Amino acid sequence: MNKHHRWQRIVILSLLSLSVFAPIVLVSQRLKTLTSIGRKEFNEDLPSIKYRRDGLKLNAIEQEAAEELNGPKLVVLQEKDFSSLVSHSSDENHGSDQSGDAQDASKLLETNETNDEGKDKHQIQQTIIRMNSRGKEQSNRETGRHDQHLQSQSLRVMDEKVKQMRDQLIRAKAYLSFAPPGSNSHLVRELRTRIKEVERAVGEASKDLDLPRSASQKMRSMEVLLAKASRAYPDCSAMATKLRAMAYNAEEQVRAQKNQELHLVQLAGKTTPKGLHCLSMRLTAEYFFLKPEERQFPNQQKLNDLDLYHYAVFSDNILACAVVVNSTISSAKEPEKIVFHVVTDFLNLPAISMWFLLNPPGKAAIHIQSIENFDWLSTKYNSTLKEQKSYDPRYNSPLNHLRFYLPDIFPALNKVVLFDHDVVVQRDLTKIWSVDMKGKVNAAVETCLESEASFRAMHMFMNFSDPFVAKRFNGNVCTWAFGVNFFDLKEWRRKNLTTLYRNYLKMGLKRPLWKAGSLPLGWITFYNQTVALEKRWHTLGLGYNSGLGQHDIEHAAVLHYDGVMKPWLEIGLAKHKGYWSKQLNYDDPYLQQCNIHE
Questions:
Q1: Dihedral class, residue 75 (left if φ above 0, else alpha if ψ from -120 to 50, else beta)
Q2: What is the pLDDT of residue 240?
């Protein structure tokens, strides 16, 4: 009996051993067969791979177009790399050779999958390197073209996720608005939660690289929730109505913000900065401490010399006058031949005079006058100027209209260059004095090209519905700009244009002939009396146009900060401020005391 049990145990143990070791032996034999077959197939395909001549691009290897590099890094190819490889080959090439190359690549993939040993991987890598080196020149060309294509494609989709997430937020908020007031259903709670998550994820991102790693997961979760919401609210017409309402509200908010911004910018443009007011007060106080003989400027004998170059600027802004004078003199080849005539009002005369006494213009001569000293202006014309219906001091200021009285202000001069006070001179202006005036009075840069931001059309500022304007002027005539103007005062006097200006001004007070400002008055006063200057003499738009080309700015003789955003204001365009700021010495003690910095 014991013997029987012993044999029974032996049989059971034998069967158990067989069931354990038999599968191991069978699997080992199968693996050995597969390995030998893989090696055989690889060796059969090796000659066709070795002698291929095409430039098949292997995306898994980092290739460079520079010929001095020895070769790509050794990287084991993955299945995804060969998928992109075959796809690219089929798209770029259509010949039989390219089809064969794709087959070779597929075979390499098959070999790589079935061979797990390090030796076989190394062989595959070395084979690929030989393939790349033999087709190097053609491959480099294809790589360059493909990289350019990928680069342009990436630029188009660099913000794709950001746009999708913002679109999801709009849709989610629209669905949320469909819920009854006070509803706290599971869908509503989930919508609110997902909206907060996506808002935190997208934040201020402008491109996909700015998004956190969890953004993709949040996008998928939101998309699932939106699909659920679309089933809960299947009414498409209601969704369309809600989206239209949301778009309309957004447009209204944008319009209101733009109007508010415009109002604030216009308001800031009319105000005087605190630092500039401080500077004026300090300089005025210092001026009145001077003795009368200490208030005199040198070189006053040059003021009426017709052989010199006479420049004029009318302003009540100390820093603006300083920049115009300094930039003109520092850019001149012969500064000793320059005479500057500054006209201001009685309130700012002491401060501007004190500034130039402390900062004399070198070899040039300077003459500073007050508009109140022109008795002929106050008795004959000042009442007319005060009748102008404009609340903007830039338009009704006598300094703004003083340009139409140049022959009266400078009776001994025959020619003068008039600057606006918001310009910076970058080049020597000697050649402007030799411009052929052709018997006309004014030389200025034209502003009649519609493709330019400085474009101004006469019909934009003149009321051509008035019979007088329609009969006397052509609305399509080429316009020009104030800022840098060369005037022939002798011809001006002969044609009596100041009287013509006064007649137009009186007519404009009786009925609306033009918009506020002196520019339309200048166009009609010097109508058919203006010659065009080359564009390089005068570049406009630095006070409102941030898109000006760098080449135009650097090569301009004079830069003009026309517009509201003047360089001495905080709202000035930072991009253009440097050209103006470099003309001032901010280490000046008065500027430091008044906290005036770049």
A1: beta
A2: 77
Rounded distance, CA 521 to CA 502, Å? Answer: 10
> Could you please report the per-residue DSSP string of 523-592?
HHHTTT-EEEEPGGG-B--TTT-TT--HHHHHT-SEEE--SS--TTSTTS-HHHHHHHHTTS-TT-HHHH
Residue 310 to residue 302: CA distance in whole angstroms:
10
Least reliable range by pLDDT among 20-24, 85-89, 195-199: 85-89
- Structure-block tokens of residue 192: 């609110």
**In the numeric block, which tokens belong to residue 311?**
């420049």
pLDDT digits (tens, 9 = 90+) for 490-503: 999 999 999 999 99
Using an 8 Å Cβ cutoff, are 139 and 63 in contact?
yes
Q: Residue 587 and residue 41: Cα distance in Å, rounded?
A: 82
In angstroms, the CA 411 to CA 493 distance is 10
Please give the Cα distance from 491 to 113 (Å, whole number). 94
Six token digits for residue 127: 């084979």
Enter the tokens of residue 191: 């919508």
Residues 6+ apart with CB under 8 A from 80: none
Q: Using only C-alpha atoms, what is the Rg of the chain?
A: 41
Q: What are phi and psi of 163, to 5 degrees?
A: -65, -40
Q: Strand 484-488 and strand 415-419: pairing?
A: antiparallel
Question: Contact, 368 vs 296, CB < 8 A?
Answer: no
